[in-house]
């Protein structure tokens, strides 16, 4: 018989949030795959448990190479426990490749539910939580980041992002540019830790605050687009938006198509506005 892959949630801050089953699984697993074995050691010491199985590292750098090894263990009947540094495996952390490979081999996959920065931030944000989408980390390059944000500019569901503290001010400024300076948001910092902080306000205001410097683990929650329908934009504004996108690296054809979607008008309307502006400038 094949074994079982267990995805275990770990505390995102307060060790007391560790689910009771976590200690049991750590003690019983044949193999414990950890994103950081040093953090795992601190976790097991805090929980007062000693893994009886083999402990090995499983992180972004070796995920592809180590997955076949773990799948072989599973096919051979082992119980493999996967833990990451904080939160649930696979959610912006290692795990997806292993789950997909295990499913392909008809290996049972289960989970020990645990803390989640995504859900915790949503609950604390004060923004609508009935419908939301998780966007993970945005690209580091400015142009790629703007393009990704524009893809969801009309998204009505609440948006959740992870971000590094040293990029937070640039990200919030980009969000204010794409979503609007007054779009409501919440920056959740150091959740469940000693210096937990939730800063709420318009994106432009949060960007100014973040420019002063922010530390810690960051989750950003952004209000969805208003349900008031597309904006009524004049030709000059349509042209301006196309130029902004072109300056960010988009081809004109792609920029025109994206602006048409934003404005809720046919592409021909935007194209004609761009052509007219070009002629007027000649």
Structural key phrases:
282 residues, alpha/beta, 5-stranded parallel sheet, 5-stranded mixed sheet, 10 strands, 43% helix, elongated, EC 2.1.1.198, 4pyrrol_Methylase_sf, Ribosomal RNA small subunit methyltransferase I, S-adenosyl-L-methionine, cytoplasm
Task: Show the helix and strand layout.
Layout (H helix, E strand, L loop, with lengths): L3 E5 L11 H9 L2 E4 L2 H11 L6 E4 L5 H13 L3 E5 L12 H9 L3 E5 L4 H9 L6 E6 L4 H10 L6 E6 L4 H12 L4 E6 L7 E6 H8 L7 E5 L12 H13 L4 H12 L3 H15 L1
Parallel strand pairs: 1-4, 1-5, 2-3, 2-4, 6-7
Antiparallel strand pairs: 7-10, 8-9, 8-10
Helix pairs in contact: 3-4, 6-7, 7-8, 9-10, 9-11, 10-11
Mean pLDDT: 93
Q: How much strand content do the residues show?
A: 15-25%
Largest β-sheet summary = 5 strands, parallel
What letter string, H or E per element, gives the SSE order?
EHEHEHEHEHEHEHEEHEHHH
The assigned structural class equals alpha/beta
Widest sheet, order of strands: 3-2-4-1-5
- According to DSSP, the number of beta strands is 10
Please report the number of helical segments. Answer: 11
How large is the radius of gyration?
Answer: 23 Å
Summarize the structure.
With 282 residues, the protein is α/β, with parallel strands linked by helices. The chain has helices at residues 20-28, 37-47, 63-75, 96-104, 117-125, 142-151, 168-179, 203-210, 235-247, 252-263, 267-281, and strands spanning 4-8, 31-34, 54-57, 79-83, 108-112, 132-137, 158-163, 184-189, 197-202, 218-222.
């Amino acid at each position: 018989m094949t074994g079982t892959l267990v995805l275990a949630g770990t505390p995102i801050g307060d060790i007391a949030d560790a689910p009771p089953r976590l200690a049991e699984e750590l003690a019983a697993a044949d193999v414990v795959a950890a994103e950081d074995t040093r953090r795992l050691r601190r976790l097991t010491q805090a929980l007062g448990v000693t893994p009886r199985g083999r402990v090995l590292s499983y992180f972004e750098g070796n995920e592809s190479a180590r997955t076949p090894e773990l799948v072989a263990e599973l096919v051979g009947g082992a119980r493999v426990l996967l833990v990451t540094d904080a939160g649930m495996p696979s959610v912006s952390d290692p795990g997806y490749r292993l789950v997909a490979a295990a499913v392909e081999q008809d290996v049972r996959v289960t989970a020990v539910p645990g803390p989640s920065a995504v859900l915790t931030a949503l609950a604390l944000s004060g923004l609508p939580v009935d419908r939301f989408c998780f966007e993970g980390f945005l690209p580091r390059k400015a142009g790629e980041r703007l393009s990704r944000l524009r893809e969801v500019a009309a998204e009505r569901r609440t948006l959740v992002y992870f971000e590094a503290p040293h990029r937070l001010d640039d990200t919030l400024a980009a969000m204010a540019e794409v979503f609007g300076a007054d779009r409501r948001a919440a920056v959740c910092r150091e959740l469940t830790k000693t210096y937990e902080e939730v800063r709420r306000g318009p994106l432009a205001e949060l960007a100014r605050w973040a420019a002063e410097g922010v530390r810690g683990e960051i989750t950003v929650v952004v209000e969805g687009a208003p349900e008031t329908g597309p904006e009524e934009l004049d030709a000059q504004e349509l042209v301006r938006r196309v130029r902004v996108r072109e300056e960010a690296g988009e081809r004109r054809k792609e920029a025109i198509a994206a602006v048409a979607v934003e404005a809720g008008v046919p592409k021909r309307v935007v194209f004609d506005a761009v052509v007219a502006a070009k002629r007027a400038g000649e």
